[in-house]
Leucine--tRNA ligase
Amino acid sequence: MYDHKSIEQKWQKLWAERRSYEVVEEDEIPRKNRRYVLDMFPYPSAAGLHVGHPEGYTATDIYSRYLRMRGYHVLHPMGWDSFGLPAENYAIKEGVHPRESTWKNIETFRRQIQDIGFSYDWSREINTASPEYYRWTQWFFLFFYKRNLAYRKKAPVNWCVSCQTVLAREQVVQGRCERCKSEVIQKELEQWFFKITEYADRLLQGLDTIDWPESIKLMQRNWIGKSEGVNITYTIDGTDKTVTVFTTRPDTNFGATFITVAPDSSFVKECFTLFPEQANVAKYVESALRKTELERMAEGRVKTGVFTGWYAINQLNGKRMPVYISDFVFSTVGTGAVVGVPGHDLRDFEFAQTLNLEIIRVVVGEDGDISSITRAEQVQEEKGVMINSGFLDGLEINRAKDQITKYIEENGWGKRVTNYKLRDWLISRQRYWGAPIPIIYCDSCGEAPVPEESLPVLLPDDVDFLPTGESPLVRSKSFHKVLCPKCGRASRRESDTLDTFVCSSWYLYRYTDPKNTSEFASKKKMAYWLPVDLYVGGAEHAVMHLLYARFFCKALYDAKYITFDEPFTKLINQGLIIGEDGQKMSKSRGNVINPDDVVSEYGADCLRMYEMFMGPFEDAKPWSTQGINGIRRFLEKVYILFPKSNHESFHGQISKFQRLEQLLHKTIKKVTEDIESFKFNTAISQMMIFINEFQKQKDDLDTVHYKLFTTNFLLLLAPFAPHIAEELWSRTGHTASIFKTNWPLYKEEFIKDETITVVVQINGKARGEVNIARDADQSFVLSEARSNERVAKFLAGKEVKREVYVKGKIVNFVVA
RNA sequence: GCCAGAGUGGUGAAAUCGGCAAACACGCACGACUCAAAAUCGUGUGCCUUACGGCUUGCGGGUUCAAUUCCCGCCUCUGGCACCA
């Protein structure tokens, strides 16, 4: 039994004393030899570390330690994303100040993380809730404000009834709060926004330049939701008014039979008093406006609408199209008005059905159907050939789209436009535990930014946190003792705080220069370390955090603070670790594994290796308390196989361990390649294969070879199980840390086999195998194959119709 | 509904520019050591079959000398989006 506790404590203490993992920008180390390996920093919850945390941290730690052994200068920091609602809610429940509980949680997290032996540079630790940090978060707000990328407006916003605050669009999941799953309603409020939409196209373009999982890129693309179409303007018959619709399907415009506008659209507001059907319209609009956007979007609602009394003229064919108002059309999408083509759009079809509107077929059905469209199944949306469409007849829809778009533009009836689903980022929160928004309101001067030199705007302590729907800061007495920076008169501060995603959008820069008091980070240090070479974390941040951080990066690039505009060159998502029962780990299910218990019982090295051995890094994997025993046995075996003192003699014949030497080189190759591609599970399997073989042969080895094998193996093991590797390394007479030693290199000539095994198949079924020289010619291999005893038995009395030989791999005889 | 990703032994999984399916590990069984147990070591372990052999990568087709891998259709699960015009 190896004593993991004393070994692990010993080395963790030594690494800390020697400050082994602290790095600085060194002029003599060129930029190409530096790497920045980053974990998504944790939210220090009261529950403490979860086994999911060390999964990602172990992977980046293995990778960082490996890179150092390959001679790289590695920045690998850790910090705390410590502002946010859960801390505040916890504080309310427990009757403590969120600062107190958060600081305590950080202590726990730090201790737990340090117990696992990660090679973080702790001198760079950051905490987003500390004034030294949030001072710069506030600076970023001013940065956006000055660049005209932050603005305040009154808008319908999403409001969580339980958290009692507004949420970003990204934080509303299926009409519910992403955090607490409570109902989200809509409110009209004056709020601060970041103009992320200005970067929509660049956020889309940039995805093509980065090495991220395709699934994440796709999610971001969908979220940005670029759609290219045409804004077509129709005149209203008998008036001087026009209505402009946005459509991505101008090709079906010969099939247009009505126009629908959103009840809250500018068109309705402008023309309200002019509609001939005034009374009906007023009634419908009033009831529609009482519903929230979320209610209007509720699934399965029967579409309703009201006729305005107006007709729009379709210039293409002179058709008079009735203009309706309906709440299935949203003012926030496109122009807030759509042209109804009920034959080829399911929503338009449903609307036409309930209101008994005309339906015209303009695309031939997939099965050649050209009958009139009366059933939803006949509504063909995405492919086909045009019909009943004048000059477009016979064209495939995409060609028709090109032609008619040109035609519409040439006639001045409309023009090409691009729309995005992405909305501006709502950053105000009506809660306490966040960075105050650095704005001052003066009765005479209006809104003014807090001067940079007055930052930070400190969070006051004379506050009652109980959520009332109003920011707790509103009722602080000390907080609002402020003078207008313009006229000097007594003013009030903005009392909302910033969304915590603002804090986490720029932390990667701060790590390069965490103590800087005059800038968020110096340009020189950012230029040296950034961008982040490898970023690892959970896929739950696919859209929000990762999109916001990319937006910040592009804004900084435009302001010439940095020379790159994508913050994370490579991204890898870790898979979820689920409970032994196959369910997601949660307190209520009682299936939570506490890493502290695992470290205490099995050791940090064992926890690290087990988490890596469980399965592919990016897949979800269930925890197995029995499975971890296998890793413990492996470490135990390694510990016993290595001599405690460095002088023991061995006797043996060279020929006996040639195969072991070959296996060593294969192992070096496999482990090296697997670390680089984050396939830690198979790297560990390979190490086990080596150790199993080594165990069988070790008594026959001479001292020189014994040392060769153990030394090289320990180097491979070191990034995975750093404590035991350091310990055994020091016991074999080394005084320097194993991590100061170069990573072993394999030699291709040791790996190549002189003789190879070729499988012999008959009709595709393996029936035997032959050993041949690597470069044996085909006729020789075939004759060897035929003379194989078992093969010959199967071939006896049968006619071989065909012989296949794939060099060095396989022989296949095809028989009748 | 739409878009991704995944389905392989009792379990976690391995092998996919087509070439011996199940490496490595867990578990289980038997054996050694032990008074005994644990630990450790050894042997075995996809399914059917006494054996010869046959069958097997969610289901059904196809291409190929050869398919877990490629193509077509379906089923299930996970994640994301959801009246975006």
About this structure: Residues 225-418 of chain A form a domain with the Isoleucyl-tRNA Synthetase; domain 2 fold (CATH 3.90.740.10).
